């Protein structure tokens, strides 16, 4: 059992009158303008290693672990990303159809390679080439945020997906293993209460989307894949558009995730080699 901290949204009275928000662009903080009103609190938690790859069910816990091989390599992801993305997504679609036969279609939304900068975390802002670890417990989408994402990813096709039932899922894997450097932590959805969840606006230069943040609770159960290998695929649900999926409540919240700190370093590879890859997928039920 790992003893560490998880960064939650603080249960501050501010959120009685303001919706949490953050901007991904520079803001001239004058006349009361702020880039973000997010107030966080760090809580000590125990994070358990996943004992068996088959012990979690995405429809109960919000995530599951698949043991599947792909041909994606570190070299391809870095040097030939467009070609690698097309090939990798085709492989993932076959894997997802095999493991989730109830879904009729999978559509890839993005392909992201993360590499922790040696100075991360740092109070000093630096320009980095790759996305950095996410440190606040969150889910990437709300049902409304998912619609905005789909409209941006598939412009002009609203008539197709607006009348369908669909999930927004992530597939997460390291490109090199075993990985113990800032591993992904997942909160078991069955330990989350609706009052633990709040919606937050994510401000982009050209649009506003919406995700979900997690308030702290001693009831939360956190897990991670110790020494994760490239064939350990973490699949987790961010949201669905109906709230009817098993294990989901009307908030349509999936599994909360956060990346754990570099305290987990037993024999881990250097940061320059520990590059996790993630991809968002929309999966259509019918």
TrEMBL record:
GO terms for molecular function: oxidoreductase activity. Transmembrane segments: none annotated. NCBIfam families: CmcJ_NvfI_EfuI. Belongs to the asaB hydroxylase/desaturase family. PANTHER family: BLL6449 PROTEIN, OXIDOREDUCTASE AN1597. This is CmcJ-like methyltransferase. It comes from Xylaria arbuscula.
